[in-house]
Write the structure tokens for this entry.
Amino acid sequence: MERHHKWIIGGFSTVVLIFMIVSGILLNGLIVKQQLNHNEVMNEINGIKASQAETESQISELTANLIETQKSLNLELNEIKTSTSSDFSGIIEESIESVVTIRTDIGQGTGFLISNDGFVITNAHVLAEGNEVYVLDYAQNEHYTDLIGYNLTLDLALLKISGSYTPLKLGNSDEVQVGEKVIAIGNPLGLQFSVSEGIVSAINRAGTNELNAYIQTDAALNPGNSGGPLINKQGEVIGINNFKVGGGENLGFALESNYIDEFVNTLSQNLYGINLIE
């Protein structure tokens, strides 16, 4: 082969080699650029997902806050309606059908329903020395009753009657304030389903059991009121009417509702494995 032919072949090979090297460099640069673009896109996508997650979290938090605000607003509106009305007629209408008369062969008192399946709370002394006990509901239906349990220290007894009812709701007695308005529903001196109105005169008063567990009220309490509910302006039971001080006017005392809650749920857990009061 002649020399110039070798030179041409050698020059062509060099060009091809240079082309391949340059192509490789450009291709590698393109791949690197694409990888960088891919990483950048993925970072943007991850950023968008994180932003969406944060936005969804903020929306959920805002929704929860709105629900709580609405609940608080409804509660405040109910309180305003009650406080601006001249009486407790609306609450009485809603509550009185959940109050019952407790009768024995030697006397009578009051009780009230705490569950929709007929559990009734009353004072233990209402049942004392009685051989027969039955319950008269607001519709004047007479029910024979089962004694589920009692606590003499707290002067509480839990009864059970058959049927379906609307129970009263227990409030948190730790939140009771001196001066707030209350009503007592009971059967004073045999006058069924009588209502008296007053205020909370004091809290954490000591009883004969030496427990600082009583709400003092000036709502009139008389024999027959024992075991009836003391109800606040939200329609919640904050105490069970227990006794009055003789020789003084408007000195009534009600066991705080949190003691009722503890007694009932401890008893129902032991007997049924459930809480009767939520």
Q: What stands out?
A: The chain has three domains: 1-84, 99-166, 173-261. The two ends are 107 Å apart (CA to CA). Confidence is low (pLDDT under 50) at residues 80-85. The first strand starts at residue 99 and ends at 104.
